[in-house]
UniProtKB/TrEMBL annotation:
Gene from which this protein is expressed: NCU07270
DUF218 domain residues: 26-142
Entry-linked Pfam families: DUF218
Protein name, entry field: DUF218 domain-containing protein
Entry GO CC: plasma membrane
Origin organism lineage: Bacteria, Pseudomonadati, Pseudomonadota, Gammaproteobacteria, Vibrionales
Amino acid sequence: MPKHVHVLAKKIWDYHLLNQTLEKSDCIFVLCSNDVRVAEHAAKIYLAGYAPYIVFSGGEGELTKGLFGCSEAEYFAHVAADMGVPLEKILIEPQSTNTGENVQFTRELLESKDLTPNKMILVQKPFMERRTFATFVRQWPGKEVIVTSPDISFDEYPNEGLSYSDVINVMLGDLQRIKYYPQYGYSIPQDIPKDVWKAFECLVALGFDEHLVDVAG
């Protein structure tokens, strides 16, 4: 990767991280995806005693259609169970296809089971921490939330299934959504420093535009 691309991408990666500290909570809420390391991180949090149960939320998204042979939530639950999380402590929401639905459908699932967590640990990919927080607070106000992700650096994050280019494209899409989604009522506003948005514009100009949405008008 060219040095200037790395510098710009790292600036955006760092912006997405909230660096919040884990605390004992009522529920672990996992927003599932193609990254199984998120499931492993969530299982470790449960096994460390941070919450009494764990809910996995996710159907099939753009990046996971046909990947697991089941919903993201079901696959992540299998990973957690294999790591020692008791099946009776796992809830599964297998229908959601985006972050807003993750929150909406998980809320409905918990309410159907008379579960009313006031403090939750949200588990997500590193570059989706900030958007997850902004979306959750808008879609389910009045709750105390802590957002966490696997402790993986930008340089360590790509693997055999996800290239540097993939990571940059996706996290630029998330940054664009952080900027524009509040006007549609999807999330609360987040301050974006000028140098972070300039890095976004530079990377888009270099062709990293695969996960951008149409925000015309």
